[in-house]
Design a protein that fits this description.
Layout: H1 4-16, H2 19-38, H3 42-45, H4 51-54, H5 57-69, H6 79-87, H7 92-112, H8 115-124, H9 129-156, H10 160-183, H11 190-199, H12 201-209, H13 215-239
Amino acid sequence: MKRLPVIFTHQLTRYACSPSTYLSAAVFLVLCAGLGLQLGQWLERDSSDLQVFFQFHPWLYLLLIPALSIQLWSDEHDVGFRTLIKTLPITPFECVFGKFLAAWFVCAIVLMLMLPIVLIANHLGEADNSVIRSQFLSSWLLAGSYLSAACFICTLIRQQVVIFLLTIGLLLTVSGLYSVIEALDHQMPIWVIDSLISLDPLSRFDTIDNGKLTLSDSLFFISMILAFLSASTVTLNYKSR
């Protein structure tokens, strides 16, 4: 774990030096604000939270997460990175978690750039900041679960274009699962529907997004993150043999 900060700093520096990081973050923020104001009609709703903005995050992450994921292992063939790996005895665990934490930190920064909307909400009326905090947390946890899945894909495939397309495909499948469950609502036993809902990250995201922050929902996302990162570590260990 002593080398984890080295990997974290190295990956964070790569994100800071990459124009695609700023472009994807700008697109995410502009679309989030535009959709919330236009489609969500936030100003007309007189709402005390920011649900009209956060409800679009699962779909907007289809743009942000793939853009971040293709940079996770883009330095595998970089001479400087290979020298760093050889100089320091860095384990696959440290490599996976360090890179993931750097990408997740970038997601946190992008979410923090929504702070002006929070200030406007408090200026216009009595905003429920406890609900808003849970909405930020739920979005960050959802981003982490998406990133962990993307990190696992990156350990399996090297081609950036394939990684980008597979990540979008995976996230689209997860995003569309909620619609499938709703379509099967009256056609399958209730225990099957409940089981599918319990495994659907978007249903749990909607629960937290509505201000109902529970320990079970938070643990679900954390468990999902740890599961994918563990799978990534095992994959790297197998490849390094």
